[in-house]
Design a protein that fits this description.
The chain has 2 domains: 60 residues; 190 residues, Aminoglycoside 3'-phosphotransferase, Chain: A, domain 2, CATH 3.90.1200.10. Helix 2 runs parallel beside helix 4, helix 4 packs across helix 6 and helix 5 packs antiparallel against helix 6. It has 6 helices and 9 strands. Helices cover 42% and strands 11% of the residues. With 279 residues, it is α+β, with helices and mostly antiparallel strands.
Length: 279
């Protein structure tokens, strides 16, 4: 039946997401209207790799177009760990950034809270654009074996290109201690993969130099903010905090301290796959 509700897998943080025909229905939250305005802008600017916002249904749920394709779930299939996937992801993020550039959020814009009151700012310096900010495996839609679209824009907000790129490489480099990586990426050559991603995006030298420090600050913010979330909502976050999040970000900071200089040197090396872009 056309109106049959089919629960969609992968909604670890957003329960109640269903598909009805060619639409997706999600619980509306205070920031939903702002995110819909952002998605509408992306499509008007020619970016098709995101859901089309369709307003709200008669139950007050957010309505979006269904994005066809495959969303890889953990563990990541080995074929999703290739250089071609990484390069396609970087190009898709660059297209999103180019479409988002210059968009001014409405005066009454509301974003999902991502930091504890008085805690570290969600972005270093002044925001450059509104970005997705959560390029985890479950938010990337594949078609014909390559990234083609993004879903779940709940964490979208004004940010910087550097934060966006560090976030993507956290998941897909991955900029993580080997103990915390997806099995398909445990033995990944992260230096090589970071260079592949940077070249495909067209990352200038200035961003390459600051990528690792940005990732280090991102890990610190994640640690502080996840601990705060666990204290504020122990039913929902406590188990996640105690079993994994409490340690992932500390290990990431330590790993970046050890490997960061080598990653930056590779990013700036003319021997990287396409050579560094002009700064």
């Amino acid at each position: 039946m056309a109106d049959e509700e089919v629960p969609l897998a992968g909604g670890d943080w957003t329960p109640g997401v269903v598909r009805i025909g060619d639409t997706v229905r999600r619980p509306a939250r205070p920031f939903t209207a702002t995110v819909q305005a952002y998605l509408a802008h992306l499509h008007s600017a020619g970016f098709t790799g995101a859901p089309v916002p369709l307003g709200f249904d008669d139950q007050g749920r957010e309505m979006l177009s269904y994005v066809p394709g495959d969303v890889p779930l953990k563990p990541l299939p080995p074929e999703a760990a290739g250089d071609d996937v990484l390069a396609a992801l970087a190009r898709l993020i660059r297209q999103l950034h180019d479409a988002a550039r210059g968009w001014v959020p409405p005066p009454d814009a509301v974003w999902m809270p991502v930091t504890r009151p008085g805690g570290p700012a969600p972005v270093d310096g002044d925001p450059e654009l509104v970005g997705h900010r959560d390029y985890c495996v479950g938010n990337v839609v594949f078609r014909q074996g390559l990234p083609a679209a993004f879903i779940d824009f709940d964490l979208a907000r004004p940010t910087s290109r550097l934060y966006e790129l560090a976030n993507a490489l956290f998941w897909w480099g991955p900029l993580q201690d080997p103990a915390d990586r997806d099995p398909a990426l445990v033995h990944a050559d992260v230096l090589h993969r970071a260079a592949v991603f940077a070249d495909a995006y067209g990352m200038p030298d200035g961003l390459r130099r600051e990528l690792v420090p940005t990732a280090q600050r991102m890990a610190h913010r994640f640690h502080v903010n996840t601990r705060w979330a666990a204290e504020r909502d122990p039913v929902f976050f406590r188990d996640v905090w105690e079993t994994s999040e409490k340690y992932v970000w500390l290990r990431m900071e330590a790993w970046l301290e050890d490997e960061g200089q080598a990653i930056t040197a590779r990013l700036l090396s003319p021997s990287s796959p396409l050579g560094p872009a002009a700064g």
